[in-house]
Each structure stands twice: as structure tokens, then as C-alpha cells.
Amino acid sequence: FSIAIPHFVSEGIGSAIDHNSADPHKRAAAVARASHAVAGLLFCGVLDSILDFFNFHLFVIVQQKVVRSLKLRLFGSVMRQELAFFDAEPTGDLMSRLTA
Length: 100
Known about the structure:
The structure is a single chain. Helix content is 85%, strand content 0%. The mean pLDDT is 88. It is rod-shaped. The two termini are 39 Å apart. The chain contains four helices and no strands.
């Protein structure tokens, strides 16, 4: 719907140019074109905004699920290590791995 917005803007500009015509039929058609262009511009703008909101919202949900899955896998992997692993690795390194 973003691609339709320039079309309606050009229709509005064209109807504004035709509105200055001396021909009354052309002037009436220009008013109809202008109202159609404004209505189309508003409709496409509102619909585009709504779809952009849901697009952003879905990406945030997917991102959070991926991050949560990776952190759970990392935590599970660290917890399955033998005790000698924790003796050999510094605590700070382990903490930075889990919190990053």
C-alpha cells in the first residue's frame, strides 16, 4: 500500500491543476478526482500504518522467542557440564556467557 501513495498524490496535484480550467465540466471532474485522491491517500496511509504496526509487532515476538530459545539451550548446556568444567573455568567467564 505504500506504493499507492505517490499515485494518489499525483492525482491530487493533477486535479488541482485542472481545477483552474475555464471549462466547467473539467473543473467538476477535477473536484471529483481530488476527493477521490484524498480518500485513497487516507485509506492507503491508514492501512499501511496498521500493517506496519503488526509487521513490527510480529518481528519483536519472533526475536524474543529466538533469544529465549538460545539462552535456554546455553543454560542447559552449561548445567550438563561435569564439575571439573566449573573448576577449570573462571566464574566471571561463565557469568558473562550466561548473561550476554
